[in-house]
Amino acid sequence: MAQLPWQFWIDVGGTFTDCMAKKPNGELLRHKLLSSGATKGQLGMGCTQERLVDSQRQNDPPQFWDNATLALLNDEGDVNQETTVDRFDNSTGSFAIVDSLSTPPQPGTRYELRHAYDAPVLAIRYLLGLATHETPPPVLLRLGTTRGTNALLTRTGANTALVVTHGFGDVLRIGYQDRPRLFDLAIKKRVPLTDNVIEIAERIASAGEILIPLDESKVKQQLVELKEQGIGSLAICLMHADLNPEHELVIEHLAREVGFAEISRSSEVSPLVKMVARGETTLVDAYLNPVLRSYFTKLQEQLPGSTLRLMTSSGGLTSAASFRGCQSVLSGPAGGVVGYTRAAELVGYSKAIGFDMGGTSTDVSRYAGSLELDFESEKAGVRLMTPTLAIETIAAGGGSICWFDGVKLQVGPDSAGADPGPACYGRGGPLTVTDVNLLLGRVIPDHFPFQLDIEAARSRIESIAAQVFVNRAERLTPVELAEGFLKIANTNMAGAIRNVTIAKGVQPEGHLLVAFGGAAAQHACAVADELDITEILHHPDAGILSAYGIGMAEEVRGATQGVYQSLATLEESHLTEFFNRLAKVPIGEFAAEGVLPEDLQLGRSLEVHYTGSDTKLLVPYSSVEQVRQDFEVLHKTRFGYTKPDREIQVASARLNLRLPVSPSPTQVVNSSKGAPEPAQHEAVFAGERLSVDSFQRDHLPQGFLIAGPALITQTHTVVVIEHGWEAEMLEGRELLLRKLAETTPGQSLLAETAKPQAAVELEIFNNLLVGVAERMGHVLRRTAVSVNVKERLDFSCAVFTAEGKLVANAPHVPVHLGAMGVTVRCLLAENPDHQLGDVFISNDPYRGGSHFPDITMVLPVHDEQTGELLFCTACRAHHAEIGGVRPGSMPPNSTSLSQEGVLISNFLYRRDGKVFEEELQELLTSGDYPSRSAAENIADLAAQAAAVERGARGLKKLVRTHGRAKLLLQMKAVQAAAELKVRQVLAGFPVDRYSFTDYLETASGVSVPICVAISINSGKDASQPAAIFDFTGTGPVVSGNLNANPAIVTSAVLYSLRLLVDEDIPLNEGVLDAVEIILPQCLLNPAPGKTVSDSPAVAAGNVETSQRVVDVLLGAFGVAAASQGTMNNVLFGDDNFGYYETLGGGSGATLDHGGADAVQVHMTNTRSTDPEVLERRLPVRLWEMGIRKNSGGTGKHSGGNGMRRKLEFLRPLKLSLITSRRGPHPPFGLEGGGAGECGRNRLIRADGSIEELPGICEREVEAGDMLEIQTPGGGGFGVVPTDWQKVNIDSLD
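Structure tokens predicted for Acetophenone carboxylase gamma subunit (1293 residues):
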């Protein structure tokens, strides 16, 4: 019988490579090294000019370092001298070197060894004990690698070109038009993977038929030109190719004829609807395939005869031949997920949360009997439409920087990285979480892989303590400060974990927390306390659990295909045949490796959703009826409702074949007997420096119990057992930590009896309160019914004081900012005798509302014993239909409020647990223009009720945890901190009066001025406003619907101030407390009439006027040129449907940055519908979605370009446009910068006639008519340098 080969399970991470080896006899070996392949060390005594000594190398294999490069480093880590090792003697740890040094190096000199091997091969050779000249035997290598992810992050993939349908060359640059960060003054869109795009004249319709055939000769010529430009890899993505791949197949064939070897075709890579996500997935595949293929070839050359299996992002292994670039992005982290799930299973747990904390980030995932997968996600800055494990990454790790922003302490999001690293690494780095743990005694220097500089860490924290004292007159000791930073880090991580679980409809309580990675064990108890988790598992291989998981992973092959049919129309025989076709390729791949079909396990599932919704659920397939039942149960569990009257659609069929593996134990021999004798170590727990027991993990016998506070040391980490926790050594050498039932002292730094630490508590409570609002948003999105809330995210959630003042919010749409507080205060004032549990709703523009579609729900939260009002929770959601003269409730030509829909001034939604649904139904369906979708309104309001209830529970829990008095005090402190931040930034402007005027064009062509004068005060008197915003001079109320109410102006001011601060400050009423707003009766403050019919219309004020107010404010401050100044509202429909979208344009340039192209700006950030989804849902055809070249204003920094969009109507419809900046007032430039181009709307009739459309209008369109919209560009900033100036600037440089 042939001997089994050695197996190696290796995870190549960004910094470290983790390796486990399984010998032919089953014994397991472990090794960890740097992913760079470098081995670092420090020279010891006895070095000469010809011979260097490091006794730590005595454990290395004989002759292992022969012919290696040895570099001596200076204190900064730079190379001083370099030589080659002639002979390595492991008996003494000495290196005989080829070139003699000029002087013998001093003991402690740092050095670095390098072989010509990549890290995995170096690890394999090390564990095999091979000398340099020896060839390794054939091995089985299971590998996870960040090689693909690193190439994405550093943009070092292959020279790739994208081939797309004509009119869609910019589709991936535009994406879904939302900006990545809501409050960046200078919008930074992600860098595209390629600038090489060719458009092909072809078109396939939304049902799969060919509209425009392919001209093969022309396509071939285009491909030849690409090849001549040096393009090496090709990505092909054509409209609707998932339905009909014919044109993509032809292009692939032509490309191979031309000489392209690397080709990724979207209909093969991800044959599913959504051109943007499928296109980006295909581009990623083409971009990474050559890089990965080259890497795997090199590995196989260094390991002749070996078998290579690669870890995919979905948690399964595949062959090198089958591995694709788009499967590589989570290759490394996937091993950790498989590892912790197997570890949890082995000790009897079926529900677990993975807590993988490394140097720069923390990965969080959940397990409930099966691996959770995302089928569309964003990872490493790219959209992927391929199965990936549901891993959420938090910017918090051991290297997260601890700092003081002048008001409060913060941890992260920036990291010190590996270079310079934390302060204690001795290379001039900043204070980090690792330093804090070291100062608190939770990192033991003797167990660290290299010497630590504790004095450097102490110096950094003392410097921050001094900053806190200067800025806040608060004296904190280094220990208090360190504990504060630790608490902030733990609270942040716990909040992120809670968000991840609640977004999926589950609570973290009841899960096992599995802590792994280098830093997790130091934080696990504290994080679990925050989450109410009572059990933690720490695996013996927690430091290299990704490698362990790769060893435990199954080999998997899968296939996916779009179905796009009603579940009710599918026959069992058709589905069986469909799955049989899908199985052919993966079965063939396994057969080529010698695996028989009977050895495989088959999984079949359908991705299903309700008609009109894009929220899909994966349901195992056994029969059509069972899929229907399982889907409804799962939908009810996940989202809280079902839609019995709504048809169920099958989006795709997914098949996977698995080659099972038997879990093997970690085979750590437990030879320990009896109670071990602990060492004593000084560490800080709950503010006290204690001498605590410190145990070596290897010495702990099975069943041994350790009560906290205590430490357990092992290679690469320290397990911290906090007060109130107990650890038990299990049979498999796992540590199981349990929360003790009885109350123990010192569990929280924030107990009311603790010494107040304002700088610490401020950041913690801000994050806790924001977390409450964020989780309200997760519940609202999860339980909402409408596309507008669930998918476009047109909502915001917030927490308020008992007086109705904003404390914390989780905004998705900036126009909601600052406005909800007015509504909350109005409802409280009008309902002074409200009862415990009452819930109210309002959409009244004269009670803090923005326009009728935005409905605000408010829940006053009381002390359940005394009945005293403590807080309010509220959320505002845009209801796509609320009545009015036009479907979509955004009539372009409304002249009174009554024409815009149903008014809800002050409606009691719930009392004593009863929802007044009948009364609400009557209200929504009454009046001259009732809601056309009352049932959907009611369903979304139920979701809003779930959200505010979730917020109330979160606040009550904070009261129980931290005390009512402390929470109320900290709410005021958080508001005060926001006010202070705004005052600080306004103090940076010279005391002066800054004014600006721009003009808004009405539907009748009248130009209405919007004026602001901003008076900056000295800021020395905190009782006076730091700035006064005076809108005197703004034009009068207009007859159309561009009137905006004061709540919108307040939102615009708050948003603009947040842009100026340019930090993640608490966004609350404190921002507005720093300033005063003067708003006379005008366009921005229309007086209500006696009735709804007498009141001015405001529908467009929310979407158009708000944008112009922000432009004016930023223009007055002189910080940004005008952005497009409109939301480009497009509405069309008939008696059966209504569709509403807003279109992005150019953003304005700033002092330091150019504007961004084709992006949502300022007061909105809603997503656009994917082109393919748009066509399959609606009777339209999109012919162009591109960037409007040269529409941004010129300048030293150019304005962003607008967007071009051509839409053909396929049947008679009603069209409405609410767009501005169509002339005569283009987006202005600043400091000599040019204006952006105005927008343009054209209706091209089927007969060829063209009508130039005004900005605000209504039209009846026929089949074949085409709407062309060109959105405005942004203004430029600064004068364009002349050629002479450029030459002189260059010479100065």
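The longest helix spans residues 934-962.
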